[in-house]
Amino acid sequence: MSRQTIVAANWKMNGNAELAAQMCRGLNDEKFNANQQVIICPPAPYLALLKANISNSQVACGAQNINENEKGAFTGEISALMLNDLQVQYVILGHSERRAMFHDSTELVAEKVAYALASGLTPILCIGETLEEREDGETESRLSYQLAPVIAKIGIKSFKDVVVAYEPVWAIGTGKTASAEIAQQTHEFIRSYLASFDADVAQQVPLLYGGSVNAKNCEELFAQADIDGGLIGGASLNVEEFKKICQAV
Ligand SMILES: O=C(CO)COP(=O)(O)O
Q1: Most buried residue among 102, 103, 178, 181 by CB atoms closer than 10 A?
Q2: Which domain does 82 fall in, by range?
Q3: Which residues are known to be catalytic?
Q4: What is this model's ipTM?
């Protein structure tokens, strides 16, 4: 069976109700490949609006984070149960912006992934190295350092229900995309790292590339053997451009 292809939009703290409405209108009539999933991850206040207006069965919604607790006195946080309530299926976890600015440690990310899975959500687990780490030859050790606690926490068999997004920090929002060759090499490493635990699981996990993907560079990236789609930031805020990226996978 071939792996699912996924194009996911991470709006970060951008967008508004008008963009949410435009995106639904733009995507509802699109035809995608049978094995393709499109996911929109808006800021939490727009999730219900998107859910109510998406009629295309291949378009799903995701949140950008959850708290690792079920409920309680955690002002400003949202829980997996709330996403269940809205029938939101996906959640981005461990984005480099959260790791860098909101102190989401590798252990905390592992806890969140475990909690998301236990709640029936599909985590989109983001991993990636900084420019300094790449230049120092530490890309592979950094990626395994980020993956290992998640595998230890959930067990490799459960990892088949995780989507991984490789996002080199130096390529996020910078206009500097990783070349298709570098992205493929790194994805191949991620898959081989997973295969060192379980070869079948490694073959099943969709590996998305993220970092300055746009309508111009996406085709070459998506043509690589181990790139199963993308996690799109800036270019996902434009409906026409995002549609082109969805059609290129
Ligand atoms: O961080 C990203 C998606 O999660 C990538 O953002 P950009 O596509 O804006 O570089």
Answers
A1: 178
A2: 5-35+44-159+189-204
A3: 95, 167
A4: 0.99
Closest atom of ligand 1 to CA, residue 212: 10
Site residues for ligand 1, CB cut-off 6 Å: 10, 95, 167, 172-173, 210-213, 231-235
pLDDT digits (tens, 9 = 90+) for 49-77: 999 999 999 999 999 999 999 999 999 99
| Token pair recorded at residue 107 | 């252990």
The DSSP 8-state label assigned to residue 159 in this structure reads G
Residue written as token pair 């808006």: 42
Find the CATH number of the domain harbouring 104.
Answer: 3.20.20.70
Residue 8 neighbours by CB under 8 Å, 6+ apart: 38, 39, 40, 41, 62, 90, 92, 124, 163, 165, 208, 229, 230, 231, 232
